[in-house]
Structures
1.
Amino acid sequence: MTYKCAIVNVPFGGSKGGIAFDPRRYSPEQLERITRRYTAELIRKNFIGPGVNVPAPDLGTGPREMAWIADTYDALHPGGIDNFACVTGKPVTQGGIRGREDATGRGVVLGLARGLDFVEDFPGTGLTRGLPGKEVAIQGFGNVGFHTADILVRRGAKVVAIGEWDGTVVVRSGRGISIPDLLEWRSEHGTIKGFPDAEEELPPEAILEVECDVLVPAAIENVIHGGTAPLVRAKLVAEAANGPTTPEGDRILGERGIPVIPDVYLNAGGVVVSYFEWARNLSHMRFGLLEKRLEIANTNALLNAAETLSGRRLSPEMRQNLVTQSDEKELVVSGLEEKMTRAYDEIREARVRLPECGTLRNAAYVVALEKIRLSYEELGIFP
């Protein structure tokens, strides 16, 4: 996490924590008691706080659990005006921020899109520039996999295969898999198996062998290893999950000429927007509040001047389109795109500057380590 935050220029360190149990076997009331007790233990050990350590959702958790954490922390720290900055990924009504739920998936798409702006960096793959028309296979249809698939399709890519723990569905004709239809099917049946639009149904592990432009592992760790890496038929691997490729798997992909956009960069969208939420909680104001009316007034003044100089009137619809200001989610998405784009460019620059890096993964770690080293050098040691 420290490296990931350094790569995307987020001023956080990093840690991981959780409870090893299956939440599907417990009632909501039991889950609430477990979550609150876990929070109490974090507080007891000083492992949580707006200026100490700020958790966020991961496997098996979401906005509901983050709200329980925030409420528990608030109850045990009466009078703390920044208490709700102790955790991110909260419901919007409880200090959360629009855009956090799909942030990791959106970050994956933004990072992949930036990588495909420079296909000359992937010689021999046959990849063409840009996302539109790319055939994508995705392993995992949870939060990250779903939002990655949904946003990819909206940006013109074609999702041809999705794999889950119980099977893989393939649709190559037309526009590929309809993500809303697959989501509805799984919601109704608890599985993607039997999806009526599927042209092929394959075993779960077969998702790695689907012929495609981009393979997106968005499920669990260590799925591309010495046994599976030789079977990958994608032109590019985009790591949306944490640690989906083992060192041996990475080496084999490299030998086969299949480039990898690494997880330590690509799935950083979640922590970027968590940082935005944390900053918003500390400021106690939504993004865009102070400047919104001023920007509207300035835009109207500019349009009035244009009408005066041209002698022509804008239609009310055109004026409304030009004057309408961005809402908070649009600002969050814009900020996330800036973070992901700039981070990729820094990784690419490091790879060019230091050819011995070889891969984007190595270049990403070089970027992170250089920033961390510089921070220690400039701050010094005290006492």
2.
Amino acid sequence: MKIQCPKCEAKYLTQLAIDSSSSVVVTCPKCRHRFTVDPLKDGKPSPKILIVDDARFFRELIMDLLVDQNVELTTAHCGEEAWKLLQSVSFDLLIADINLPDISGSDLIKRVRNDPHCASLPILCISGVYRQDDDARQAFIAGANDFMTKSFHPEDFTARIDKLLAR
């Protein structure tokens, strides 16, 4: 199967062992970026989701929750990295932490909303800090479509993802 890394755009061929689960997590040999591919796609493109969080654990947790959802997942560890990806790849959903190390999640959302190429992108904002009311208010003012704390139930999370992708 021919695969292209969405982060560094490296192209390579690989053989995948396919079982009943069609999505496979791949690590790019060039830049070590983890993303999912679906070798059994039915001809229509899988929705592309960008996950932005400075906590590697949480990025991987979200990937684990969504790996069976027939979506293509890309991760970024900071707002600037996410912004560069958003300028070069057309995503169907952005999941962004409100508290990022370089620019805030709110500032990233404002950039997205002010860019004509991605202004209509659905955005789920997440926060692990217990200032939930302030964080939620900031996220919605910036233009987020939904907000969750990181202490969520997996079924609630995937239901919100499905709803945002159906827009």
3.
Amino acid sequence: MEKYELEFQIRSSVNILFNCLSTPSGLSEWFADDVNCTKKTYTFFWDNSEQEAELITVSNNYFIKFRWVDYPHNTFFEFRIEVDEITNDVILKVTDFAETEEVQEGKDLWTSQIHTLMKHLGS
């Protein structure tokens, strides 16, 4: 599995953005059709499929890291929020893993998903 990272400038407050990245209701607005959470297990629903992810770690308004339960233990996907000290621009960094031949497909999917998030935020 190969690790990759993408960055997006988001026009939103950090609090609102973090809510969209970390809560079932926020994630269901842009990432999946529906999201349920039981303790540290998030279940994501798309059309006729579902996938579970374990919440690994979270730091409020800064980052949240998940691991798909059917992926290797040394992989994860993470949303990290950074604010530029000079411009106050909000930057969302997405880190994920994919098989080498699927990295570009993964990047394209995340780009599409984050653009959906940006539309939801009015960004």
